[in-house]
Amino acid sequence: MLSRRNKMGNKIEPCLIIIFGATGDLTNRKLLPAFYKLEFENLLHKDSKIIAFARKEKSNEQFRKEALKAINTFSKFKVDNKVWKKLENKIFYHQSEFQDIKGFNRLKELIKKICTKTTSCNKVFYLSAPPGFFGPIISNLKKSGLTASSGWSRVVFEKPFGHDLKSAKKLNESIKKVFKEKQIYRIDHYVGKELVQNLLVLRFANSIFEPIWNKKYIDHVQITVAEDIGVETRGNYYEKSGALRDIIQNHMLQLVALTAMEPPVTLDAEDIREEKVKVLRSIRPLTTKDIGKMTVRGQYGSGVVNDKKVKAYHDEDKVSKKSNTETFAALKLNIDNSRWSDVPFYLRTGKRLKERVAEITIVFKQNSGILFNEHVKNIEPNMLIVRIQPEEGISLQFSAKVPGKKMIIDNVRMDFCHECKFGPNTPDAYERLLYDIMIGDQTLFTSWEMVEHSWKIVDKIAKAWKKGKVASYAAGSWGPKNADALIEKDKRKWYAPQKTIYSTFLQNNGNKIQ
Ligand SMILES: NC(=O)c1ccc[n+]([C@@H]2O[C@H](COP(=O)([O-])OP(=O)(O)OC[C@H]3O[C@@H](n4cnc5c(N)ncnc54)[C@H](OP(=O)(O)O)[C@@H]3O)[C@@H](O)[C@H]2O)c1
Predict the structure, then answer these.
(1) Measured between alpha carbons, how far is residue 116 from residues 18, 53, 92, 239 in Å?
(2) Each residue of 472-500: pLDDT tens digit?
(3) Is residue 406 in a domain?
(4) pLDDT tens digits, one per residue of 47-61
(5) By the 8 A CB rule, do 326 and 246 touch?
(6) Which CATH number belongs to the domain containing residue 28 in this structure?
(7) Nearest to 186 by CA among 132, 251, 258
(8) 426 and 305 in a common domain
């Protein structure tokens, strides 16, 4: 449950949220359901308004109708008419091209009309637009004088922030001419996920974990972000991006940083962001030779996923038949600091894998005690598994005696099921992120330093991967064979995600929440 005050005690203030790209997929699937939930929770200030900016001609009424349809389709909550009526009256539609300064001048006029003394004209400019338009939108915001008008202004960028370090720097410099870092919110929605936020609590609020969270006790860390879906309608975008830029540069390096960071001085945004950047700076730079040995890429061929036959990546819509884009990436990273030296972090992500799952597995060193040596053949090491999706939770794996007269030891898990304990009302990542933008808390947003260092890591790999050909893997598998070799040559293995005891509980509760 979110509250009407941030951790500094500031109250939520009224503001105008201008969504650039308001008829797009992201607005429909994520932003509108999140606004509905915030309204439901009474966390959208009564004087706040939403201005939907997009290219097609339509009236306020038409947009509101479409917005309701999107909320009905994508929200996990059954729409309450009273709540919708309150939200509906806050939504306005504004038609314009992103490149058209006249449209921005008209937007300024509309804002003048809408914002009364109570809203104080505070503004959130939310760029849910194709990234190629970030520059023109920022430039038109400045030209029209919208950024200089009364009230505070904040600007929100969806990922990707640049295509490489050079383009990210160029974009950042153009933004910096108009906004200060304090006003810039770069979204990585993964960081808004409840279990990702829980990582800091798990590590720093529990006396049992922090003392063993280091090279003395941890053997290695593995992070998996697997999707069972293919590229769907996003072939155009994905051809230029690939798994490395789409997932590793942002979500996965964020997960590495949160898993590996030192305790921050305070819970303030700056202190947390500073510690996260230090982790990226401590990642050992990969040489061209390392990239050959420590990275793997693959592209899905045809196969069977969830009992359905699916086509190969190069047969997907808007994808080149000769595409060399990776839909799978795996890497081994070393963090050269006193906590993590000699503890490798193995990362893997891909599309059309066996199942949809995101989890961080902390694998502890195996007990060298000789007492049970003759019984430990199939015993896995102790593991702490943070399940980010789909069934949020944390599991601790350890060894236990199988009942009976013989001494047989098996692997068992203690599971914490987030939804079983806290119910289904956990805020969606976007709900949390929108709320934080409105209260001015940048903790969960990516700082420029983080963007810069993550591109430095990724650019080197991307450059080396330009040469050579991507390996193929069967859709429905766990990726190419050499991803197994990457970890097996260190005498380790990937641990396949396991069904937890609460899977059935959650499956039975998949209906809309009243
Ligand atoms: N979709 C996702 O799941 C997802 C996930 C993570 C990040 N993102 C990021 O979120 C952003 C939006 O993605 P999306 O999938 O929502 O894109 P989308 O479905 O292609 O929607 C694009 C939006 O921009 C508008 N638009 C395009 N060109 C325009 C122009 N010249 N002038 C005015 N409006 C224009 C479109 O309006 P019309 O409909 O009127 O043409 C539409 O509202 C992108 O930066 C993307 O990388 C998306």
Answers:
(1) 16, 20, 15, 46
(2) 999 999 999 999 999 999 999 999 887 76
(3) yes
(4) 999 999 999 999 999
(5) no
(6) 3.40.50.720
(7) 251
(8) yes
